[in-house]
């Protein structure tokens, strides 16, 4: 469904992603693990074309989301990019809700403005999704009145409202107090059980073990491991990964 081929990304002289090859299959849940600064979030942002790559290719359902001009890769124009961003949802670390809009207004914004859905239909869909994440009773509240966990659940409902082909989660619990983490992870687990295609950057090792079909470990911009959770957590012989996992015991 979603593929990266020989992707390179630089920030100035810093080579953040190094010839990355990665394929995400339909209905697969992939957890991206690695130390801080390893390139995890940058990898995710390149998949959603929030970061421009210097070299390589990214494909959604075998359609390149960048194009070649001579030997140089460039971004597509905004109209072309909007299609890709409609089909690839994103849940950020810090929620990114509109503070001046109610919960319901936040969820219907994308479907109405981007998908051109009728407002009445968008409201029905949004209320269904808010019920799904346990927040229907908060639909007329503003984000500032919600806990961090509730705001993140609204952000998940907002991403789902666009009916994307895949959702990317960038450390969805990193900004939460510890007691609020579980409520967000439970929602994501439910989505995984429903067969939603997801790529999740996380530091929650037990969550990754439980929910992921495949673990991808990245360090210094290189993918060092791809395999099942069992292979990663129980049978891994790589010294670098062993050192990483020792921090969570």
Automatic annotation (TrEMBL):
It comes from Salinicoccus kekensis. It holds the Pfam family ABC_tran. Belongs to the ABC transporter superfamily. Gene3D superfamilies: P-loop containing nucleotide triphosphate hydrolases. This is Amino acid ABC transporter ATP-binding protein (PAAT family). Keywords: ATP-binding, Nucleotide-binding, Transport. Residues 2-245 form the ABC transporter domain. One of its GO terms (molecular function) is ATP binding.
């Amino acid at each position: 469904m979603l593929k990266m081929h020989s992707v390179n990304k630089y920030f100035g002289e810093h080579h953040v992603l190094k010839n990355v090859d990665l394929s995400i299959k339909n209905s697969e849940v992939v957890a991206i693990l690695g130390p801080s600064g390893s390139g995890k979030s940058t990898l995710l942002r390149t998949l959603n074309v929030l970061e421009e790559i210097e070299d390589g290719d990214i494909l959604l359902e075998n359609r390149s989301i960048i194009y070649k001009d001579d030997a140089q890769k460039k971004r597509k124009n905004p109209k072309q990019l909007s299609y890709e961003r409609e089909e690839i949802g994103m849940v950020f670390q810090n929620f990114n809700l509109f503070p001046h809009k109610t919960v319901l207004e936040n969820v219907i914004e994308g479907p109405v403005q981007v998908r051109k859905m009728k407002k009445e239909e968008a409201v029905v869909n949004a209320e269904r999704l808010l019920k799904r994440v346990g927040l229907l009773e908060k639909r007329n509240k503003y984000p500032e009145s919600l806990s961090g966990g509730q705001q993140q659940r609204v952000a998940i409902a907002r991403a789902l409202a666009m009916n994307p082909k895949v959702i990317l989660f960038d450390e969805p619990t990193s900004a939460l107090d510890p007691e609020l983490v579980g409520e967000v992870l439970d929602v994501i687990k439910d989505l995984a059980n429903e067969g939603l295609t997801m790529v999740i950057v996380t530091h929650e090792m037990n969550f990754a073990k439980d929910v992921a079909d495949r673990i991808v470990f990245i360090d210094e911009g290189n993918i060092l491991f791809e395999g099942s959770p069992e292979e990663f957590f129980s049978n891994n012989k790589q010294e670098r990964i062993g050192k990483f996992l020792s921090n969570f015991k």
